[in-house]
Amino acid sequence: MSKHAGRPVRTQTPALRRRHSGWYMLTVIAVLSVAAWLLWPSLAGKFAPQQSGAVLALDAAMDGFSVQQIKAKVGEPLTVQLRSLDTPYHSDGGGKHQFAIDEFGVNIVAPPKGVSAATFTPDKPGTYTFYCDICCGGKANPTMQGTLVVTA
Asked: Of all helices (H) and strands (E), which one includes residue 74?
């Protein structure tokens, strides 16, 4: 200790400085990790690789899908970007939404306030039902389903 204006002044030892810088770095890493975790759902779809073929942006909320009918062609890839408009605080489904078509093995689940995407290629013409079975009354709810019309 040294004296400064009549008062003792503590000087930081190298060990104390290392301890303080360690806590500082731990705090910075924790804050950045929480920020990345909170921002990931909204940014995830923006950095997805570009797909060839048609791209459909589809919103889902407790009141249904933003599109009730989708048109596609046999053999042409279709990318569905499903965005959930609901928050994680919904009691029914926790804000997640699904886009599923059984005949093509499609099952996309978007996180609350987030985006998920998948690409599939319809291989046969026909009319197929897409649906969300996670919440909102499930597959039987007419607002949580629509049709995919595939032409040759």
From this structure: none
pLDDT at residue 62 tops 90 = no
**102/129 Cα distance (integer angstroms):** 8
Q: What six digits make up the tokens of 30? A: 């924790």
Looking at residue 71, its pLDDT comes to 95
Q: How far apart are CA 36 and CA 51, in angstroms?
A: 25
Q: What pLDDT, in 10s, does the model give residues 81-127? A: 999 998 887 766 688 999 999 999 999 999 999 999 999 999 999 99
Comparing 4 with 23, which gets the higher pLDDT?
Answer: 23
Q: Distance between the two ends of the chain, CA-based, in angstroms?
A: 87
CB < 8 Å & 24+ apart, contacts of 85-94: 85/59, 85/60, 85/61, 85/113, 86/60, 86/61, 86/62, 86/112, 86/113, 87/112, 87/113, 88/112, 88/113, 90/62, 90/135, 92/62, 92/135, 92/136, 93/134, 93/135, 93/136, 94/135
Q: CB of 9 within 8 A of CB of 2? A: yes
What are the beta bridge partners of residue 3? 8
Point out which residues pair with 2 in neighbouring strands.
Answer: 9
